[in-house]
Amino acid sequence: MRILVTGGAGFIGSALVRHLVRDVGxxxxxxxxxxxxGNETSLKVIENAPNYRFLKADIxxxxxxxxxxxxxxxxxxMHLAAESHVDRSITGAAEFVQTNVMGTFMLLEAxxxxxxxxxxxxxxxxxxxxxxxxxxxxxxxxEGLFHETTPYDPSSPYSASKAASDHLAIxxxxxxGLPVVVSNCSNNYGPYHFPEKLIPLIILNALDGKPLxxxxxxxNIRDWLYVEDHARxxxxxxxKGRLGEKYNVGxxxxxxxxxxxxxxCALMDKMRPKAEPHEALIKYVTxxxxxxxxxxxxxxxxxxxxxxxxxxxxxxxxxxxxxxxxDNEWWWRPLRDGVYSGERLGTLEKKA
Length: 352
Ligand code: NAD
Description:
The protein is built from twelve helices and 13 strands. It is an alpha/beta fold and about 350 residues long. It has a seven-stranded parallel β-sheet with strand order 3-2-1-4-5-6-11, sandwiched between helices. The mean pLDDT is about 95. The protein has a domain at about 1-195 and about 225-255 and about 295-315: NAD(P)-binding Rossmann-like Domain (Rossmann fold, 3-Layer(aba) Sandwich), CATH 3.40.50. About 50% of the residues are buried. The radius of gyration is 20 Å and the shape is globular. Strand 1, helix 1 (about 10-25) and strand 2 form a beta-alpha-beta unit. Helix 1 (about 10-25) packs across helix 8 (about 225-240), helix 7 packs parallel to helix 9 (about 255-270) and helix 7 (about 200-210) crosses helix 11 (about 315-325). The chain has helices spanning about 10-25, 60-70, 85-90, 95-115, 120-125, 155-175, 200-210, 225-240, 255-270, 300-305, 315-325, 330-340, and strands spanning about 1-5, 25-30, 50-55, 75-80, 125-135, 180-185, 190, 210-215, 220-225, 225, 245-250, 255, 280-285. Helix content is about 45%, strand content about 15%. Bound molecules: nicotinamide-adenine-dinucleotide. Nicotinamide-adenine-dinucleotide binds near residues 9, 60, 84 and 185.
């Protein structure tokens, strides 16, 4: 099995590549542009594996994608490359439209051209998994869940660009017959998460004794999934998912942001007792513009049709995650010192 993964140097992509190379034994070509969010050190444990190789390339570069398909001859594409941080999309949407919409379009076209040249079993077995987010569905009230049939209603430039790319992927199936499957997952957390995102930012700021920024009143709810559970789901969906269908992925672990932050503080009090109480560092800051109130996933289709089940719940996963950051300064220190040191992103306030 030869699998071309895009965005494999990112947070979820690297978890997927590690899973495919080590547990599945697939031959993997990781195609990644290495933006600020791409980090080859996340793949250190498999970098010398004979079934792993890396290509630094932009998915918007049609010729490079055509060449990658022609030389690697993949059986499957798993497309994760994207601009992924909502806050950055608020102040710099152009990159999101470029990579998430145009890049997906270029990749679909390269896949269609390559798949069009396959015959027989190879053509029948080919798959294009487009990896997306639950944020395309917009915001929930106090009740209810996102189902695969929930209408799209994105709020941020990020989620709007992902919604557009989902529509392109499904259209390439309906119009050209490309064997596409789409997955929509809730918020991920776990090791190798770039420190601009809520959970790693809170852990590292707590470690440094810096303020722990909580947007608004901290009452927004996210449905948290451990990244390795997501990686297993993606392999399953790409292997057994029905063509032209969507699969929601989520761990049934809804938490208010403030409760996530307080849980991390409690773990830090336990693991770094000299600096307790970490909760004293919590600082409520101006809310994110267009901040969706609540996300919650109904993963019944994935669970019943494909037999997937999350192995971690939030309590086990967050403890592992905090411990991982405390043990792996070699990974995050260069990012904190050189790429992103924790400043606020995505406000519309004018700078004084
Ligand atoms: P990430 O930002 O950590 O990684 C994105 C990767 O894509 C990086 O390695 C980056 O270098 C690469 N990339 C960006 N632009 C590229 C381009 N033009 N060409 C090639 N490579 C490029 O993102 P992530 O959190 O790992 O998310 C991966 C995918 O999963 C995204 O499509 C995202 O929308 C989706 N998703 C993320 C979450 C989440 O909680 N993080 C949840 C659901 C879905």
